[in-house]
Write a structure and sequence with these properties.
The protein has 234 residues and is mainly α. It folds into two domains: 108 residues, Helix-hairpin-Helix base-excision DNA repair enzymes (C-terminal) (Endonuclease Iii, domain 2, Orthogonal Bundle); 114 residues, Endonuclease III, domain 1. Helix content is 60%, strand content 3%. The chain has a two-stranded antiparallel sheet with strand order 1-2. The radius of gyration is 19 Å and the shape is elongated. The structure holds iron/sulfur cluster. The site of iron/sulfur cluster has 13 residues, from helix 10 and helix 13.
């Protein structure tokens, strides 16, 4: 599964893993686009909408994000409009996303910050994105990947969990996972990784009750080798 890279780093054979994962998720009856992938398709990758959609997607399910985003953008579609929006109105529109009190304040505040500090344009680099209110590394990397098509690896709970289960990394948190994955995975795979891993995590390698019985990655999976097959043997 791994090989020594030219610089001595352990380079992961991720191409084969992504192909197998892709066949499982895109061919599955349960396959559905992630909220961000849908947003990218619908909005042509508008970085502002990706930014707001990613903030709304925090701590909620994809279908709730999609409803909230669609309600919101039907009324307020630009940073200027959202910066001047009535907070109570925004709360009602984004209610399906949950935590709507906090999220309404955040998206209005970030819209104002964009106008005041970035001339209304969403930054296209991590350092400036991280200056924005409510934006952490995952959100910043989502804006790069889904909004700008700039290679990055957004690490959410799915990407973190699956990377550790497969044995691609041995890490304690998402930021450390991102650091390790960017060292081990060739840049040409970064753009596709988040969407495939998230869909795989939603349908197959679920947090509780992973579907190892139908997974074609059993042969390269550390968790399967060390936990599932041992359990089956006993
Ligand atoms: S074998 Fe199981 S734990 Fe490993 S990647 Fe597949 S579903 Fe996840």
């Amino acid at each position: 599964m791994v090989q020594k890279g030219a610089l001595g780093h352990r380079r992961v054979e991720i191409g084969s893993i992504l192909s197998k994962m892709g066949r499982m998720v895109y061919g599955s009856r349960d396959a559905r686009a992630t909220a961000l992938a849908q947003l990218k398709e619908q909005e042509g990758g508008d970085p502002f909408r990706i930014l707001i959609g990613t903030i709304l997607s925090q701590r909620t399910r994809d279908e709730n994000t999609t409803k909230a985003v669609s309600n919101l953008f039907a009324r307020y579609s630009t940073a200027e409009e959202l910066a001047a929006a009535d907070e109570g109105d925004v709360k009602v529109l984004i209610r399906p996303a949950g935590f709507y009190n906090v999220k309404a304040k955040s998206i209005i505040r970030v819209s104002r910050q964009l106008l005041e500090e970035f001339k209304g344009r969403v930054p296209d680099n991590v350092d400036d994105l991280l200056k924005l209110h409510s934006v952490g590394r995952k959100t910043a990397n989502c804006v790069l990947v889904y909004g700008y098509g700039i290679p990055a690896i957004p690490v959410d709970t799915h990407v973190h969990r699956i990377s550790n289960r497969l044995g691609l990394v041995e890490t304690k948190g998402p930021d450390e996972t991102e650091k390790e994955l960017t060292k081990k995975i060739p840049r040409r795979h970064w753009l596709e990784l988040n969407d495939v891993f998230v869909r795989f995590g939603q349908t197959t390698c679920r947090p509780i009750g992973p579907r190892c019985d139908i997974c074609t990655l059993r042969g390269v999976c550390k968790y399967y080798r060390e936990v599932v097959s041992q359990r089956e043997a006993n």
